[in-house]
Amino acid sequence: MKLLHELVFPFIAVLAAFIIGAVLILIVGDNPIEAYRLLFGSALSWPDGIGYTLFYATPLIFTGLAVLVAFRCGLLNIGAEGQLYIAAFAVAWVGITFANLSAWILVPLCFIAAIVGGGVWGAIPGALKARFGSHEVINTIMLNFVAIALVSYFTQYHYKTPGDPILQTVPIGSGAEIARLGKFIPGLPDRIPLNVAFIVALVACVLVYFFLWRTKWGYEIRATGNNPSAAEYGGISIRKQIVLAMVVSGALAGLVGINEVMGYRYRFYDGFSANYGFTGIAVALLGRNHPVGVLLSALFFGMLLRGGIFVDAFTDNVTKDLVDVLQGIVILFVAAEALFRGPFGKFGLLKRPKV
Amino acid sequence: MLILRNITKHFGSVVANERVNIEVEPGTIHAIVGENGAGKSTAMRIAYGFYEADSGEILLDGEVQQITTPHDAIARGVGMVHQHFMLVGTMTVAENIVLGAEPGSVLSLDLTEAAAEIRKLSAEFRLSVDPHAIVENLSVGQQQRVELLKALYRHARLLILDEPTAVLTPQEVDEFFAILRSMREQGKTVIIITHKLSEVLAISDQVTVMRDGRVVGRLETSETSAAELARLMVGREVLLRVEKPDSKPGATELKVKNLSVMTADGGKRVDNASFEVRRGEIVGIAGVEGNGQTELIEALAGLTEPAQLSGEIWFEDRDITRQAARSRRELGIAHIPEDRHRRGLLLDFDLAENSILGVHYRKPVVTYPGDIVLDYDAIQQRARRIISDFDVRPPDTELPARSLSGGNQQKLIIGRELDLKPRLLLVSQPTRGVDIGAIEFIHRNLVAMRDAGCAVLLVSAELEEVTSLSDRLLVIHEGRIVGEVDPKVATIEEIGLLMTRGH
How far apart are CA B97 and CA B149, in angstroms? Predict the structure, then answer.
């Protein structure tokens, strides 16, 4: 019941976005019903549609969870993008450097690399905030630039196959590769890159829920996010919570590296992220900063990404920018919710005194 | 002047007002009293057009009026000052006052005339407000006068004041009442919503008492008493005076030696304070608010940066000056903070989660493996015990703390802290914003803690509260402990002089 209530507003936001989107499609001269049929039809077809939708959703689940954990501590982590780049490169580095190890050792080692890489990159702005009070939004944005440039440098000058025109590292050892889900699911061809990382993402949703709502550490993080003064009064060290939340957040963002490097390209490909870190903010917002919501909204965004390609190809005038427009409108509506839930109730704006 | 006739208002399934009849005579000060949630504010917001009544009529000067927005009310000479001020801090007094009805053309705002008018009104009602001062630089008391001026500037003949004294110091209350009296002399009508009985008796001509959304009495102030009003408000006999046996103090629990609390700019908020609190006694600290009480209690609770402290704090032969809040709690020090919204509660968390704040990391709240996982059965059990022992209403552990009334929030905090079986209890403003029935309950519990051997340090801005509860009374002035008096012997005047002059 409570969950249903929570879902109402995001649902309205999505619906409203599609209505406005339909008007825009009409204006550019296409049939909105046809466009939406293409969008959903291609995103939900079996096996390609569903396979790719889930594949696109995987990194968004990780980054959505990352933003959610930081947010529950009262922090806005805009640095998931940088954290996932560092982590992905760390995974590739381990996969290349220890290429001869067996999968039993190398896979866990790469997982640890993803977690540590993202965690460390998240810990830096956390520690800066805890120690000096410098704002995490500024620091995480700045560290994105640093991270992206740093991994690009290492790829270009140290880990590239000599002569390769593409900016990517040499392949990781075969022991570091994780299976595509086609191996286990009949009817799902092996060419679809949906892989074990999706299962990891589902497990991560459960673990994040358990961590935040069922452990004392989660309680302390949430208490700090809800009211830092009261948390301090309750004997909770706010500084520790800020660092802890940023480490966990960064580590979750870092898990994107598993999907990308171990399950998809089997190497580090420079500039691979299609703004996963930033879209994660939208995913968390639409998902009301709850793991279940994040899962649902990541699947929704995955659908848009997959379906957008086909709308682009098979309509006359609509391009895949429609997806960005829809995303933008959804976020506007979700953000506008605060107005509707204001102190004056449903018609708050109309009832405000004219004094 | 104003008559509310058979006003009924529901919020969903909750009845806020049920056939409410209020009659206010012109040129009088009319008090509306009742406990939190009795429907006083709702009735007045209906009169001001903030809410629309489900049924009933509003009459002004004998005529039925359609008041559906505050705009209608203002046009008919009704003004309202809310409990939380609606001022723009970065603008001047004059700018705030003309806001919404700016004089001059679209391109240029002409405030000279407005400023003159404000000066005239300010002099007429002895408000002494400078129209060019920036609002955020004014004291709370002065800001309230700006709100009054705002209503007067719009030619209000009837002023509705919602809990106007809640934010004022005792001195400011006296000045404020003088202003209200001068308004009455000038022919204005004033309605004052409050739950402080002493104020009703001090200022009003008539009083309407509300309980559970209904009017339960309309009295001439001169013919009633605090006891009668309290009985009407609560619906039963209420003990207004704390009755307690003499204390039997034991060993010293808390010893403060030359404690000072510095601010970042080098000032001293607590200045060289030394005192002791023994088992089985309540030591009160009286003082005008803002004289270092807050900083003193926070320093004792471990909420002050160690770098800001000098001096020593001893608890049972142990120097705790450098200890963190958590380890002090583990030693048996509990703390009821002065600001329950800022310090005491996680407002969006439910009652169960609030009931474990401070003990959330240790047994029996956590369970295996490794004492990390929260044990929700144990938490529920604990929350239900506190809720039933301390009569928190409504008794639903899954409600967010935000949804409770102030009194019930306070009972939850007190229950949580007393459930720790503390050996030292730091209490700050335990009954602020709490209604009469709950005040009596809280006082009884504090005395019971004392009688069970707990050492209690009590800070309160209510002089009557601190004198009637305390066994010994310290007076604080500008951060210094300026004297100790026997609360059974000392008069309010004596203590008041110490509080304000420091000697």
Answer: 7
